[in-house]
Fold these 3 entries.
Entry 1:
Amino acid sequence: MATTLLMPKATAVWLVDNTALSFDQIAAFCGLHPLEVQGVADGDVAGGIMGVNPIQNGQLTREEIEKAEADPDYRMKVSDPKVRVAQAKRKGPRYTPISRRNERPNAIRWLLRNHPELKDAQIMRLVGTTKSTIDSVRENTHWNSANIQPMDPVTLGLCSQIDLDLEVKRAAVRSGAGTPDEVEQGTMLLTAEEALATAGGRTGATDLPGSDANRRPEQDEEIDAESVFAKLKSLKSDTADEDRD
């Protein structure tokens, strides 16, 4: 992938003012027309633009400039950037590896059978297929219909479980079986308190460490201990009375 020059006109202004390069060399490096570079030199073009040093921003080296000044036919090249900036993801159909594209009809059949509430657009996002393929699988007109077996797209690696759950919840909200809050919280992790509360609701309050049911045996044990000590005291007092007698 070719590296794009940042601020070509500002770079051309700096090269015109600080180097002995020809207009053709500057135009080829900055992606401009030679007449534009000549207009920059005459002050007719980019009059209010401040020159930018391409050496400081790492897009050109001093050796490259000296080499071009020595050879008028030499064309300078933009230096490779030291830091690679991640490009924004392209919005469109999900990319499916070539080795897994044959599995898409199986995933479509599984989604149509197990999640009929999903729209075709949702299936297209999950599997990375087209509407015509979905219609052919639904109507059994696909060229390989005899060999199509329903298979989970998550197992096939065509989508993640989070994406599938999110699309299912969106379909549930659209049909009135869910709420928008459930869709927003679908991929959120529970806190420790929420997890304990959920576990307590499922197993019952008697299973929680701080419940009254767990405290009752301790209270019973304390009552039994007090009664035992009371009996011992009464026995000691009886023996003391007998000794006095």
Entry 2:
Amino acid sequence: MKLLPFRVFPLASVLLASFVGLASAAPISLTGQILGDPRTGNFHDLFIDVTITGDTTSNQVSWKVDINTPNHPNAKLDEFYFNMIGLGSDYSFSGFNPTGWDINSPASSQGGGNMNLEFLFEALDPSGQPHADDVTNTQDLTFTMTKASGNFLASDFLNAFSSCSSDSEMPCGQMGAHLQSLQQGQSGFLVGNYAVSSSGGTPGSGGAPSSGGQVPEPNSSSLVLLAMGLLGASFWARRGAAAKL
């Protein structure tokens, strides 16, 4: 008895493979704006934009720290601070631009008062020669972050603890920065938190939310049900064809 070929089975296999791929991959796209300095007598027009991109199938994400403070054209980054879920030893860093910058853990923050819970990491130009190029309004700081065990989730950032200053005028935050060379020779401290990008991932899963006006893609549940239905149709069609022989 010879079974007749039926073309639904390969299609179902392709759909199941697609389901596996969709279930395992989701983009991570986080942003955050660090603002300062909120303290009386300090400049309040300091801004740094932070962008983090990657996906949940990888143990690496890319960071960009962008000073966006046009009222202080000579502003430069002294140190950038941030927290993560876990320990400092859970992460490593590479690919710095400007070359020569580095990240230490734990941080020893400057200019923001005493921290009752210090930041986990600090990015800085280490002391000594040669000096790295400054991070300014026209020169971003970028680097790659690698997770030692497992792949990244958006919750690794969004659920990180907040560091708080002993200065009552300074809010708590998951990120911070110390800017130098402001107008009148002042410096300032900035604080902020991670947020989901308007076009990026959702908390926890890192999945991208749909935006208005776009046709939604089929979700994974719909795809697996369709694939199982096609597999069932293939099975019964092959049995029916065999019974007629």
Entry 3:
Amino acid sequence: MKKVSKKDTKPERVAVLEGRIREIYAEYRHLLPAEYKWEDESSRWTELVYCIFAELTHHSYRDARRLANGISDMNLLGVDDLAGIPIMDDGMVNPDNSRVRTITDILKANAVADDDIRKSLSAICKVAQAIQENYGGKIQKFLRKYGHEIVNEFDSHVSFSEVSKGAQSRILVKWIQNTLCMPLAFSNVYTARFCERKGANYWELAEAADNLGINGAMLDDLLEVYIVDIEGKKV
């Protein structure tokens, strides 16, 4: 399937894709493996918060992960919410913000020092602002950008005479998905078939997946199961 410019992305087609993917997920998800790395793309952001806690709170890695996961489970780590918290003239986050106060109370209750709390929350909010401003609040868009660069770089130096250029690209995408857990899609012909059926393009599918927070590798597998089911055969 031919890739097109991001400028050709139509919001109405993205919305249709989102609705259809939700339906397919509900009907076919149980047929896929029980676990996927980063199936929910928001978990990548929680992992980054964990890394900040691990480095700046002087707590064990286990405690840092427990704190990050616990605060995330309380829906306090939304990128858009954290990105909107003001940074003061001293470079620290506004301590009077209600979300900051809540997270601060949680960290204090877990014996995190005041200075470590200020540094950690300021770092988290600054990163959230950068992700919001540059990648629409979707950290997977940052990763996808460089995932495509890896694929294109490799693709430019390697030529499989046994297969078409499209098949070669799908092989490389699948490899990047599996080895680096990159949020790329289109590692199989079924994803392309789905888009053709919906009159959609690559970027519209990627945006729909981002809006739903679904990992590209899992989406590829999901759409393969769906297309094989409705068409009655594997390609």
